[in-house]
Amino acid sequence: MKTIYLYLFIFVTSFTALLWSCDDEYGPRKESTPVIVSAAATPATFTFGDTITLSAEIIDPATMLSTLFYEVVSGENVITTGSIPLSGDTANLSNNVFVPMIRNQADNAPVTINLIAQNVLKGTSSHKIEGLTGKRPSYSKLYLVADNGIIALLNPQSGDKNKYSGSNLTLDSSMRFKLAEKLHADNTIDYSGHVYGNVDGRPGLINETGESLFILTPTGDYTKGILFDNLTYTFSTTSGNLGVDDLALSIFGSQDIDNESFRTLTRTLENGKSYSLIGILGDRMNLYNPDFFERLSDNQVKFLGKTGEYTVYYNPVRKNVFVGTDNPAYPDYLLATGYGLGYPTRVTSAEIGAVYAGHVRTHTSWGFGHIMNYVLLRQISTGIYQGTFYTPGDHDHYAGFKPFENTGWGNEKKAGDFTFTGEQIITGDNDWTIPNGENDPVIESANYRFTVNLTTKTVHIQKVTL
Question: pLDDT per residue over 172-195, tens digit each?
């Protein structure tokens, strides 16, 4: 085992020879060595991957102190090394030392800390702190946190506390990620617990500045299972193949609409049927249009619309999913076009505008040229239509729109023909207007659900949290 003693011996020998041949910048050389009066590490029993406190009293009455070198050793392995600067002829120090866990680290292992105190003339003395015990960490669970936001749970295997596995997953076949012991309430990593990432090309414990790991499942369409061996620091995966009811970006095409990049898939969707979301489509940040989808879990949705052929639209910047259909028309739909409506998203206007210059959360405009011009209200029962939209624009707090029965501007629904209940945000006799005049109250930009009853000529507006 190579230790700091060997390196320091070579260095000190060379430096001593140099001193004989040149003037001493510290004045007349005095023969002295530091004295390590006492040294300890607490706690005496700790968990690898935690921080311990190294304390020591060091004196040298003849020469100024320079440095305290330390190395933490378990068995034949030097786990970590470091140095602490000293000054004066007396040092009383108390420093935190992070003790990482290395691959194949034994449990309940004896640990020794080797110390070398050095003065400015390279005089040295050594000391050992013994009687320490390092334990391997044990977790009730680990969270796989992918860089794209997807989170998967890995549980300890019965009979082997060093192995953690997740099954029935729908992760991408290749991904960058970290393993975390703890998460904050907003599902971000809590670095007060252990976090595993990339350390010099291998898995290891990291802090906030650490890098992500990379894993590849070379066969199949996605990663269905993952096993982490915390003793050998190795990962293994099992692959899954897409079923007829699975939705994955690998089967989506690409389409540019209104200068925004969409992923699209045209297929038959069945009313009441559940569909599995593979990979990034399962990101909890993705907001599925609640008028057509019920989110059952992170990786599953149920389709609420009428059975038929639809195009599914996923916007990776807005992080929302909605559907369109060829020639949507009454009685299955109403189409709202105009200014100031947008399919719900959790992404801010600033984040959208940073990618698509000038674009905000609302996206409609007068016309039916493409699916960003208008939004759909789905018939939920005879004569009753529901649409959930973000409105008005948070950049101007204005909206002006109107529902129609088809893309040919058929049978417009004028505001003056309806009684509005619930949130009183609409004014006007013709267009459905959310005003922003000097004397108008500022309407909160939020997700609102419009329920239009053509039989009773009423519109109920409800603010909703998605």
Answer: 999 999 999 999 998 999 999 999
SS3 94: strand
Q: Which residues lie closer than 8 Å to 415 by C-beta, 6 or more apart?
A: 402, 426, 427, 428, 429, 430, 431, 432, 433
User: Could you tell me the two tokens for 20?
Assistant: 């004989």
Q: Contact, 361 vs 348, CB < 8 A? A: yes
R_g (Cα) of the chain, nearest Å: 33
Full-prediction pTM beyond 0.85?
no
Task: Show the CA angle centred on residue 269, arms to residues 268 and 273, nearest 5°.
Answer: 140
The one-letter amino acid at 451: T
Q: Tell me the domains of the chain and their CATH numbers.
A: 4-135 (2.60.40.10), 142-240 (2.60.40), 246-463 (no CATH)
Q: What is the pLDDT of residues 294-342, one digit of tens each?
A: 999 989 999 999 999 999 999 999 999 999 999 999 999 999 999 999 9
- pLDDT, one tens digit per residue, over 353-376 is 999 999 999 999 999 999 999 999
* Token pair of 286 as six digits: 């993705």
With contact defined as beta carbons under 8 Å apart, do 404 and 411 qualify?
yes
